[in-house]
Write a structure and sequence with these properties.
With 99 residues, the protein is mainly α. The chain has one domain. It contains four helices and no strands. The chain has helices spanning 19-34, 48-65, 73-78, 81-98. Helix 1 packs antiparallel against helix 2 (48-65). The protein starts with 18 loop residues before the first helix and ends with a helix.
Length: 99
């Protein structure tokens, strides 16, 4: 017998699929797979700051989108829907300023 409070496989109350972050994560994943040149700097090399921001947004979107809520508050914030939005915004600002 397993205790419902200590079993990690049991869904937490209130955790459910959040469609918007999940769709954002899937869109980022497919967009970068299909068009990796979107993260290229003007010189042709990879723009690591924009890539890091987008991949953070993708990770946060998947974690939040499937309904997982980390227990530790720092991880909960880093992988939240707001973090997904922040990552997309940071990547957009970075790519816009590069020209």
């Amino acid at each position: 017998m397993t205790d419902r409070q200590t079993d990690p496989a049991v869904a937490q109350p209130g955790s459910s699929i959040q469609l918007l972050p999940l769709l954002a994560a899937i869109a980022i994943m497919l967009g970068i797979t299909i068009w990796p040149g979107a993260l290229a700097a003007p010189g042709g090399g990879a723009d690591h700051w924009a890539a890091m921001a987008l991949f953070w947004a993708m990770s946060a979107g998947f974690v939040t989108g499937v309904g997982f809520q980390p227990r530790f508050f720092a991880w909960r914030w880093l992988f939240s829907g707001l973090a997904c939005l922040a990552g997309v915004a940071l990547a957009a600002i970075r790519l816009y300023t590069l020209g």
